[in-house]
Amino acid sequence: MAVSETTVRDDYPDGVYMLMVYNDRTMLTSVEHTNSDGTTDRVILTNHSLITTDGTVLVDSVGINTVEHSLPLGRRYMITGFAYEILLDITLSLDDTVAWWNVGRQSKMAVANTWDTGHDVANSNELIALHVTLQRKLWNEYMLEPLIYN
Questions:
Q1: Residue 146 confidence (pLDDT) above 60
Q2: Which of 92, 120, 131, 144 matches a 20 to 30 Å C-alpha distance to 45?
Q3: Does some domain include residue 33?
């Protein structure tokens, strides 16, 4: 199975294609991946390649195919959203009563391609400190004082 997508990288101003390949015969390892909400999924260790517009094929060590920036509070607190392709090992989730699950001939694994997404906020520790300070001030001002005087 192969998945190809277009992507943009700073090193490739004309754009580049990203290719993720799964080989049923050799890619038999799945590992537990912990999501940001604490849940876990089994993912298959795959490789990603970049194919440039002139046909050069390179190993893609980054693997990210989507990057979006948002600047609601300016560049200092830039939000970067990202996504990268992964293969889920859904073998343990199969319902034996349902016919026609697509499983690998060699591996007997069922896989599904999807994207792992996330985001990062630059200097987020400053925003958290500001939030805690304001929350404490508002709590003291609006919640504790009425309780004291009533």
A1: no
A2: 120
A3: yes
Q: Is 60 helix (H, G, I), strand (E, B) or coil?
A: coil
Task: Output phi, psi for 129, to 5 deg.
Answer: -60, -40
**Number of domains observed in the structure of the chain:** 1
Residue 31 has which token pair? Answer: 């590992």
Residue 144 resides in a domain: no
Say how far apart CA 87 and CA 42 lie, in whole Å: 9
The model's pLDDT over 3-48, given as tens digits with 9 standing for 90+, comes to 888 887 878 888 899 988 888 877 778 889 888 788 899 998 777 8
Dist CA 85 CA 80 (whole Å): 17
Residue 61 lies inside a defined structural domain of this protein? yes
67 located within any domain: yes
User: Residue 18 forms beta bridges with which residues?
Assistant: 5, 50
Residue 107 β-bridge partners: none
Classify each residue of 39-63 as buried b or exposed e, where b means 16 or more C-beta atoms within 10 Å of its C-beta: eebbbbebebebeeeeeeeeebeeb
Q: What are phi and psi of 69, to 5 degrees?
A: -110, 145
In contact, 69 and 79? CB cutoff 8 Å: yes
Residue 97 structural domain: 2-123
**How far apart, in whole angstroms, are the C-alpha atoms of residue 112 and residue 89?**
7
